[in-house]
Design goal:
With about 475 residues, this protein is an alpha+beta fold. Among the domains are: about 110 residues, Thrombin, subunit H (Beta Barrel); about 90 residues, Phage tail protein beta-alpha-beta fold (3-Layer(bab) Sandwich), CATH 3.55.50; about 120 residues, no CATH class. Helix content is about 15%, strand content about 35%. Strand 15 and strand 16 form a beta hairpin. Helix 3 packs antiparallel against helix 4.
Amino acid sequence: MAEGLTTAGDFVLDLAEIITVDGSPVKVTANVLSVILFEDIENPFISGSISFNDGLNIQNLLPLIGQEVLKLRLRTPSFETEEMIIDSLFYINNLSTVLDVNTNNKILNFEFISIEAMENSRKSVSRTLRGTCASIVETLLRNDLKCSKDFFVDPTKDGRIILGTDVSPMKIIRDMTNEAISERHGSPTYMFFETLEGFHFRSLESLYKEKILMEYTSDGTGGHTPRKHGFSEVILELNKIRKVQKTNSNDSMADQNNGSYASTVITHDIFNKTYKETNYNYFESFKDERHINFFNGRGKQEPMIAKVALDDNGSTISDLPVKTFLLPVSFADIVSKQDGQYTNAITNDYKNIRGYDPDSFITKRTSMLNNYDAIAADIEVDGNTFIRAGNMVELNLPAQSAERMEEPDKVDRFYRGAFLIRNIKHSFTLSENENKHVMSLSCVSDCVDKEILGSEIDIVPKVYGKSKKINPLTINVNRLSDTNY
């Protein structure tokens, strides 16, 4: 695999071409200084920037005004299959900076975005769409956004009818993403995003079950393998972490308020004049859900938080729902959840159309999407052109005090095993001496492989200083003052 790749982070820029507003192609490959590409599973489109020398004043001669098309082709030596090569078109949407180097040269920096992002900004949908959530998204992608890229989809169940009321295609796609339920996994955890491979409409479970592509670790050498006889172990260096920042997104107060661990949905059925209350409990639901370790890792999934008692009754954070959703529904058939909006006395052509049913998705989706990045590590590694946002990798980060670890492998209990790449920033830098590709990855996980034990008794002391007293006083402060009002 390493034939032709002599240095970790090496890359080849085969083409950088700008198609001007009059349709003329202008190659700037030899003038490029840097390229940045950004993918994020929470963002529907790719974005980036390109910088290059303009010693011929093409900015004024062509001119370049921020309405051009950019063609890019980059690759890592030895990785020659189509899916491992970056070969894409983008819209240049902004000339962000112009730096005058001297009287004969300047550096231009352009920002660019996906072709489909520009299409979305120009289109509106004012028609009826019918089908599953996945088929509606595909229709909007192919017909409205004119997308010719690959589309990776996790099929959804149940038919829907959507009326577009002069809204953008992405507005409807976002609605479908929020409400879609996986046909295979039965899960409402869909994400819609673009990578350099194409567009994805997939549940978290669909992403979790993909094979692990890279294994990243760090050691005392700062993320690089020492050279032997003048040569470095290139493949080993690709697996080494140059920089790492461990983060933890758990904020117990915020998470309790936003429904991460407990929530209630109350639905009012305006067709049948009834209401229903459904509760979600994180700890009770966790064992039946499929988290990242179910598909990868060590075969055991445990919650990221402890089941610790919060009162004398032994209630945990999942037993005390603070977040409540109040939503209307309309079911002609409560059992099949047939949409009551499309029912009449003559025909029943829409019996397979499922109505809006927040009971089936809103509480579970809220919890799993809020917690999918409970453990996060931002790492910097030598780059390659086949890693994408949404891929699976393995992290094994050493503990700070390894000699005090219970496990013999001395690996951090939170930063071990399978992780999902939430976003990725490719930074390509070109110079006369060396081309360097660096990737900044945000890697996330939603569980641990060993239970975090919590007390079954409230851990707040009954008496401690002025915070708790057996017989607290109520003091009238006016009696302590000589001032009369």
